[in-house]
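Appendix C: a fully annotated inverse folding record. The material below is reproduced so that readers can follow the format used throughout the book. The structure is listed first as tokens, followed by the designed sequence.
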């Protein structure tokens, strides 16, 4: 949002600068005795030149990296506003000293404008991040002033996974889902990948995001422009945003889950939810499973339950491709999923 506002301000400021400078030049030419016809046309031409310059600068910025653009766009606005302020003050000063000759007027105007321009450059380049922080703080307070709103920052893996849409429709999630712009950008990069599988995942993630935005469930979706510490990786920026907003992180990434827990950030792992909803399996329970492939150990075979849970069968290698009864010996439960270890069951 800050970048879009800066574009509009920059365009309007350049047009205004074109008007002002063309008027200033024409006034000096008239005072020097030159006859000028169609003054309005020349002033309009100055505004047009300002618009062309603004568009050229914006197009040039479009081809630089997003990080540079976000950093220098507020700086450009600060510089232009400072130049406008300098010109206005110089004209105010000259108003009180009308008897000064034209050369002195030009010198005073240029000096004041350059002085304010330097201040604008300094503030724009060194304090731009402060303005972004201020805007972010206002947005944070807007969310935090609504105690009933539960904030959740969404990771790229959740959108690619897709189960979030069904969870929201079921009513198990409420509040506001915050989608950082850098997550959306990462998703777009995946969707543009040359690899067919990655491209399909990226497009699926974009489709899921669109369905969330159009959903009538008790969940709202907000795209946020915050990009804290642009040098950090996506996971690090997600955790920083979670702390700033006081939000939870929605993910299916096992590593992000562990790092967030160490960092004191609350994580909602969809895999944990899926595991919690799976039917309970107890040791010594007998179940039926189809053996699909060989296991790592010489006598092992592997099968899968209907919910995708992996079942490792000791002594089942000779029964590949068959539905067999197995006896549960142990269960391994992690955030990455659940594995059931069994042995081939021989009926008495």
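Designed amino acids, in order:
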């Amino acid at each position: 949002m800050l970048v879009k506002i800066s574009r509009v301000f920059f365009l309007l400021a350049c047009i205004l600068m074109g008007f002002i400078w063309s008027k200033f030049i024409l006034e000096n030419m008239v005072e020097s005795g030159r006859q000028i016809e169609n003054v309005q046309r020349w002033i309009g031409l100055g505004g047009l030149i300002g618009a062309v310059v603004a568009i050229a600068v914006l197009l040039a910025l479009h081809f630089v990296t997003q990080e540079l653009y976000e950093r220098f766009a507020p700086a450009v606005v600060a510089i232009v506003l400072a130049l406008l302020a300098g010109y206005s003050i110089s004209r105010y000063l000259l108003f009180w000293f009308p008897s000064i000759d034209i050369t002195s007027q030009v010198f005073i105007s240029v000096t004041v404008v350059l002085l304010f321009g330097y201040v604008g450059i300094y503030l724009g380049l060194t304090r731009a991040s402060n303005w972004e922080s201020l805007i972010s703080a206002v947005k944070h307070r807007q969310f935090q002033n609504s105690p009933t709103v539960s904030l959740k920052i969404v990771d790229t893996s959740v959108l690619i996974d897709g189960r979030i849409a069904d969870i929201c429709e079921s009513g198990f999630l409420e509040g506001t889902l915050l989608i950082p712009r850098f997550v959306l950008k990462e998703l777009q990069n995946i969707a543009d990948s040359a690899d067919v599988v990655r491209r399909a995942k990226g497009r699926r993630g974009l489709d899921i995001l669109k369905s969330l935005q159009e959903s009538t469930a008790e969940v709202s979706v907000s795209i946020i422009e915050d990009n804290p510490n642009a040098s950090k990786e996506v996971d690090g920026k997600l955790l920083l945003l979670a702390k700033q907003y006081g939000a939870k992180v929605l993910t299916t990434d096992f590593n992000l889950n562990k790092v967030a827990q160490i960092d004191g950030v609350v994580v909602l792992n969809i895999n944990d939810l899926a595991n919690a909803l799976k039917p309970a399996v107890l040791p010594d329970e007998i179940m039926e499973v189809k053996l699909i492939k060989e296991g790592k150990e010489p006598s092992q075979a592997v099968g899968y339950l209907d919910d995708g849970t992996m079942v490792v069968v000791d002594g089942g290698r000779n029964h590949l491709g068959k539905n067999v009864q197995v006896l549960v010996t142990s269960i391994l439960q992690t955030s990455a999923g659940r594995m059931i270890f069994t042995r081939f069951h021989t009926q008495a």
